[in-house]
Amino acid sequence: MSSNKEFDAIIVGGGHNGLAAAAYLAKAGREVLVLEKLEHPGGAAVSAHAFDGVDARLSRYSYLVSLLPKQVIDDLGLRITLARRRYSSYTPDPADGSRALLVDNGDEAATAASFAAVGAPDGEFRAFTAFYAACRQLTEALWPTMTSPLLPRSEARSLATRAGAAEAWEAMIEHPIGHAITRELGSDLVRGVVLTDALIGTFARADDEDLQQNICFLYHLFGGGTGDWDVPVGGMGAVSGELERAARDAGATILTSADVTAVRPGGVVDYRHGGQDHSSSARWVLSNVAPAVLDRLRSRLRDLPATGAAAAGAAAAGNPNHRREGAQVKVNLLLKRLPRLLDGSVSPEAAFGGTFHINETWSQLDAAYGTAAAGSVPSPLPCEIYCHSLTDPSILSPELQAAGAQTLTVFGLHVPDGWSRPGTTRTGAPNCRPPSWHP
Ligand SMILES: Cc1cc2nc3c(=O)[nH]c(=O)nc-3n(C[C@H](O)[C@H](O)[C@H](O)COP(=O)(O)OP(=O)(O)OC[C@H]3O[C@@H](n4cnc5c(N)ncnc54)[C@H](O)[C@@H]3O)c2cc1C
């Protein structure tokens, strides 16, 4: 085993957070080594030519930016462009695909009319607007603290109270977010649109007492204080590429294909690189890997309970060792053109300009969770779709752009990650065909 020089900091993992930490530390004059096991840094924030021979560079996993404070962009001199979208969401009525809710941030009257068109109760648009306005009081108060040392809960709560967001604190932090959604909103479809923000990124039910869904909901509404999710021009790889550049320019060493095998006491990090074992040491070791990975690297792997349906059961029973898992499956697509809608009142460009929800009413989401927690694939599968190329065609070659091609990203909800492990089989043919567009 070879031994390298002593660093001030070794960062295990070269995802965007590891790169940002490396850039800050190197700018502060520290000797930094980033060890990334893949051939490229960026972690889940990368772009890729997903289809052989096709010049379309899609964000492979993470695709929208909201939680990147402007201060970080300025501090690190990142040259990135983030594009704001006009449309928030489009949600066809699963019972009648020719009518849908279009939330258009550029036209309040049209949005209000759309609530009426899907049969939402009188006053639902006002309630929807008031609900998000209350949440925003909280997020605007808390967001600026994100670039400071984490506040103790009591101080964060006082800050929220002083900002007039005491009720929002109760709804978003203290109690299952599902309670507030059902209290404030009456339409099954509108409730579902709101609930998706509590589900994308976890495997939870709206009223789970462990509040994982609230964490998910909060970070969807939190970014910039406003909850805007912007399109990274050039794809997500452009963002992590800039972080990598900033880190390297500041003098950080980024070693790819460097698989960390152990983190030992005294700041010693073992890794494999170039077919050989290496060992480096540092005053500080920063982890940019998942907690379970770090546990393994520190040889403290606890006996974790099963994931998937068994884990859902454990969570319901209040098992404190329960480990949450992701439950979204993502499929990237490249289309010759956007689908044509049954709803003649909306252009496909508007419908796909925000998040396109399919089978995501409150009751559909709840039923799908129950099915998945019991070990079966939900059908219909709740899905949502994102189109990058409408806002930023630069990820497509000039030829594809001229031909009218579009990228779509489809997320299926309530498909627990545990099902993808070797030896796990799930049968079922989930119906995910949207009832809202022409075949
Ligand atoms: C499908 C999907 C879509 C998402 N969409 C969004 C979105 O639109 N917007 C958003 O803000 N967030 C999104 N997220 C979440 C976001 O991707 C993560 O929060 C983010 O990538 C976390 O960044 P990170 O740097 O902390 O970790 P990661 O990106 O996970 O990076 C960790 C790095 O550590 C490396 N590593 C692991 N083990 C070792 C080892 N032993 N040795 C060396 N290196 C190791 C990995 O290869 C990886 O590069 C999405 C996530 C997924 C999966």
Plain-language structure description:
The chain is of the alpha/beta class and 439 residues long. The chain has three domains: 99 residues, FAD/NAD(P)-binding domain (3-Layer(bba) Sandwich); 148 residues, no CATH class; 105 residues, no CATH class. Strands 9-2-1-12-11-10 form a six-stranded mixed beta sheet. A six-stranded mixed beta sheet has the order 7-6-14-15-16-13. Strand 3 and strand 4 form a beta hairpin. The longest helix is centred in the N-terminal third of the chain and has 19 residues. The chain is globular. The site of flavin-adenine dinucleotide has 25 residues, from helix 1 and strand 10.
Provide tags for this entry:
439 residues, alpha/beta, FAD/NAD(P)-binding domain, 3 domains, 6-stranded mixed β-sheet, 16 strands, 34% helix, globular
